[in-house]
From TrEMBL:
Keywords: Hydrolase, Signal. SUPFAM superfamilies: Six-hairpin glycosidases. It comes from the Eukaryota. GO terms for molecular function: hydrolase activity. The lineage of its organism: Eukaryota, Fungi, Dikarya, Ascomycota, Pezizomycotina. This is Glycosyl hydrolase family 76-domain-containing protein.
Amino acid sequence: MHSSKQILSFLLPFTLISNTFAQQSITNPTTRAEFALSALQIWYNAGTGLWNTCGWWNSANVMTMVTNLAKYDSNPQLQDLAKRVFANTLVNAPSKNPQPGVESKTFSQKQLSLNNTGYDKSSGEDGEVITTYPQGWGKIRWDQDYKVEDIQLKLQGDPVNAAAAPNPNDWLDGFYDDDLWWALAWIGAYDITKNVQYLQLAEGIFMATTKVWPSRCFNGGIYWSFKKDYVNAVANELFFSTAAHLANRAQNKAFYVDWAQRSLAWFLKSGMINSRGTINDGLTDGCVNNNQTTWSYNQGVILGGLAELNKAAPDKSYLPLAAKTAKAAIAELSDSNGILHDKCGPLCGGDASQFKGIFVRNLQQLHAVAPDAAYVKTIQANANSIWNNNRDQGNMLSINWAGPYIATANASTHSSAMDALVAAITVK
């Protein structure tokens, strides 16, 4: 079995300072993010194309974070690493899809109850999302599935150019938010590589989710899952944001602008935005705001979508709406030092541990088109606190951005915190 030091040197051969806490004085945001990426990639599993210790949809978010870092950091080694990870994930991750093919099936209510794949999502206490996976899905043996020689073999070159066109159905698992996280990840990969296959994959995933429109509420929107038992914020925000992103990249711009505008209009009508300007988790069976937790990611996804739609089809209402949402969320979710917390914090589960990074990632995207000192303050405060208070001796980043570090970090907590480190690269 190879040591983690050998794996690290292969995956990201940056010249690193040997004494981790000699790095405490590092203030350069790019350098911080590079150190953090070195730590993150210890979890990357070349055999599965995913990051060990986190879930299927979480890995899509990890990849999106990597695409953003590659946008802002021109380091040739990082660029090479990112492109190889994209290519490897495209080839290998579909085999780990926890519930493939569900969207293509038609289920009766009886069949729904019998569709026991072992993959499911539910709401726990305070509406916290709980994802369960098929038995053994996350049990990955380091010595069998993560060998350096395997990584070297599978990450050579860019196999996507020689492979058959990727199949969008490989990325669908019956939960439409999962599907759309992957669509956004492949849009990010396209932005870095300009490989049209990545963009076409994102388009195919999006088109699959249009088939569930409309939901039972207000003749629009999509459901959370193929079970059609919940209309929630995140799935619909992701639908909107993916359409807006595609409008700025795909050939059929008008088609995606129309979808983005329709889904935004429906979302504003849905009532999920509360009187404080923040967004609750979803709608009741009667199609009214369920007043469940205002999770940080629900405040974030809409920001990136509005920034993209305003670029594709400018409208004087989009950026003010984004600013109102962003500032309401900052006020509601930040402590007295400006550090973000979700309601479940600091000990959130495997899903909610991803949420804060998604908010900061999209806040940075909004800042890029509508700069605001409040966004800079939030991003920098969180990035600095993560680096100074939420990091162990191996540069692993945990869930409590305010500190102290809570053992043990995993790919979800780490990549979420990295979203803040990456955002800090671009704000001044």
